[in-house]
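This part of the workshop introduces the protein records we will be handling. The question running through the whole workshop is how a given chain folds. To make this concrete, we reproduce a full record directly below:
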Amino acid sequence: MSMTQKQKMLAGELYIADDPELVADAARAAAWMDRYNAASAASAADRYAMLVEGLGHVGGGVVVRSPFHCDYGYNVHLEDGVFLNFGCIVLDVVAVRIGTGTLIGPGVQILTAEHPRDAAVRSQKLEYGRSVTIGRNVWIGAGALILPGVSIGDDAIIGAGSVVTCDVAPNTTVVGNPASPVK
């Protein structure tokens, strides 16, 4: 039995993003984001309930400031006490897991979507995803860019504006483009 495009996407295999099932999922996520982003004056309890409705997992005490944008929402997993500041973008074609107590600054982009390096394959409108895992008690500064497949260890710090292209060890501070450890 062949896999659906959604099953391929979730497995990190090449898939076609304009598949009708994925287009419908993205439309549902867009409608949810419109409601969530328009509800910035709603109570904390109402906004939390909306997060639970739209995301894959939301731990206790999670705060996501509007505007927030994602592809599907169901692949975003936020543990207890996660804070996402204004303007975060999460391209969640596969899992994005953010650990307890992690703080994410404004304008941060977390990307899982990839495109084939081979031009002939890329011309077929195929793409794939690589999961991103961010540990607990991580601080990611404003405007940082976390690229597909990256894991960030517990207690790490990502400097503002950094472009994280590879894994970051626990208790490590990285800055720059590409991000590298501060000595």
